[in-house]
Specification:
single chain; alpha/beta; 20 strands; 471 residues; nine-stranded mixed β-sheet; FAD/NAD(P)-binding domain; binds flavin-adenine dinucleotide
């Protein structure tokens, strides 16, 4: 069994069982380590698995925490949330204070607050991790986890892409946002013209000034791409294809909302929709009062979601999801300004529709839309964000998880449901993959809260397991 690599001179005793294996090395893993540190969990009992390349990590000594969201050096990729709401610990505005002295960014300030570069948040995360008492004590395995199998003694066997096998008492899935898979037919020769990982932010290094660009998807990744093109002074035409034919709204300078206290009767999708309609003002959705009311609803969603039966969650997802996504994912003012300037000049054209197929000739990529329209492009940017997590897929294939599962479904204690829909002992998940069970747990602030609640359970269970081992 390969030994987990240690981040300091501390050595791992041979054959040590990992107490808590955290699968994933992004933001969620970082906030979990901070929470475990605060609860005094012995760092030698914790190992993080992940293979983020060093160039995406601001501090090699820490070697985690940037993940898909913040692991980019592209200076045009900004946080889409103002600084005081970006947290590593729940209810702490530490990032804002740190930014005042540690970030030199003349473009961050806007009427809606300060929106910093995402790579600077990764720097903050790395620095916060180095200040933890446990820093340097955690194990790190630089490889992807490819398979999990339960042990006879209630633990887990963790297998990695480089052939490693590890024993773990508890496993925490913090695998985050999977890579997008094309939702359209892709002719193999067209692959060379498709950029399917724009979130890395390196595609612009080979950008030619007059290339015709097509962007599939109209969310926040599309906004990052538009800002980068704008800042480069790109000359080529840009076509953006998205089902709603519109771009995300701008963040407003919204005051903290009064918390909405839902009554216990919101137990159906229908009642949730009624609550939503009753609480949103009849204003433009970019006004501070509209966003404030929306954020109030968002804050009470986890409580409501918790009480919705599974079938009602599916119903609510169908009926609310599109509106929720549009209102929820707001862009920074800098990003919106760039996109609107391109729209106003006629360089950017929005198309309402879906891409059905992508083919290519020697000269161009051809996109066929579901309405029959054909679009030509030199380069196609895939900004749809829809993807499957290969490890979760493997767990489905191995019969560990129910096939009908939406993402990774968990109980109130973050335990993943097994194929009989019973909580699986020692297997936990949190963050983006658990959104179907936990509600809107996608942003940094919400994930920090989830990590705090899960860390309570993990540290309690670790003490129980150690007590049992000593008896
Ligand atoms: C592009 C982008 C921008 C965002 N911007 C903001 C923002 O400005 N503000 C905000 O509040 N929220 C933002 N978010 C929301 C975001 O979901 C969270 O802030 C955060 O990224 C979630 O952290 P994570 O660690 O769960 O996921 P990720 O950031 O996706 O990291 C998961 C990590 O786990 C690794 N991994 C996955 N599977 C395995 C495996 N099997 N074995 C080993 N390692 C594995 C991945 O390689 C990755 O490094 C953004 C999200 C994205 C995708």
């Amino acid at each position: 069994m390969p030994e987990p690599e240690q981040q300091s001179a501390a050595t791992t005793p041979r054959h040590q069982e990992i107490g808590i294996a955290i699968i994933g090395d992004g933001y969620a893993a970082a906030t979990m380590l901070i929470q475990l540190d605060e609860r005094g969990v012995d760092p030698e009992r914790v190992t993080v698995f992940g293979d983020t390349p060093p160039e995406n990590i601001p501090n090699e000594n820490v070697s985690l925490g940037s993940g898909k969201a913040y692991g980019t050096a592209n200076p045009n990729y900004r946080l889409n949330v103002r600084a005081d709401l970006m947290k590593l610990r729940p209810d702490d505005a530490e990032f804002s204070r740190w930014a005042e002295t540690e970030i030199d960014d003349g473009d961050a300030a806007t009427h809606a607050g300060d929106f910093y570069r995402r790579c600077d948040f990764a720097r903050f995360t790395a620095e916060t991790l180095t200040k933890c008492a446990s820093s340097g004590g955690w194990g790190k395995v630089r490889s992807r986890v490819t398979r999990l199998t339960p042990d006879s003694d209630g633990g887990w066997r963790v297998m990695t892409a480089d052939g490693g096998h590890y024993q773990a008492g508890m496993v925490v899935l913090a695998t985050g946002n999977p890579d997008g898979n094309p939702s359209f037919t892709l002719d193999p020769p067209a692959r060379d013209r498709l950029e399917d990982q724009p979130w890395k932010g390196v595609w612009d290094r080979t950008l030619k000034g007059d290339e015709r660009i097509a962007i599939i998807g109209g969310g926040l990744t599309a906004m990052d791409i538009l800002t980068t093109l704008f800042r480069h002074g790109h000359d080529g035409k840009v076509d953006l294809i998205t089902p709603g034919g519109m771009l995300p709204p701008m963040q407003a300078n919204w005051p903290k909302a009064d918390e909405i206290t839902p009554d216990g009767r919101v137990t159906t999708a229908h009642r949730l929709l009624r609550l939503w309609r009753a609480n949103l003002p009849d204003d433009d959705w970019e006004t501070p009062q509209w966003q404030s009311a929306f954020e109030g609803l968002r804050a009470c969603l986890p409580t409501i979601w918790h009480h919705l039966p599974r079938q009602e969650r599916i119903r609510a997802g169908y009926r609310l999801s599109r509106h929720w996504q549009l209102a929820r994912f707001r862009a920074s003012p800098q990003t919106v300004a760039a996109a609107r300037a391109m729209l106003n000049s006629g360089q950017l054209e929005l198309h309402s529709g879906r891409v059905e197929a992508m083919t290519a000739t020697d000269q161009h990529a051809h996109l066929t839309l579901t309405n029959g329209q054909i679009m030509l492009a030199d380069r196609v940017m895939m900004a749809t964000g829809a993807g499957r997590d290969p490890l979760v897929q493997q767990c489905h294939d191995d019969g560990l998880l129910p096939r009908a599962m939406q993402g990774v479904e968990v109980d109130h204690d973050f335990q993943v449901y097994d194929h009989h829909w019973r909580p699986t002992q020692g297997l936990y998940a949190f963050g983006p993959p658990t959104a179907f069970s936990r509600g809107d747990v996608l942003g940094a602030g919400s994930i920090a809260k989830e990590a705090s609640a899960l860390a309570d359970r993990l540290s309690d269970r670790l003490s129980v397991r150690m007590g049992e081992a000593l008896r």
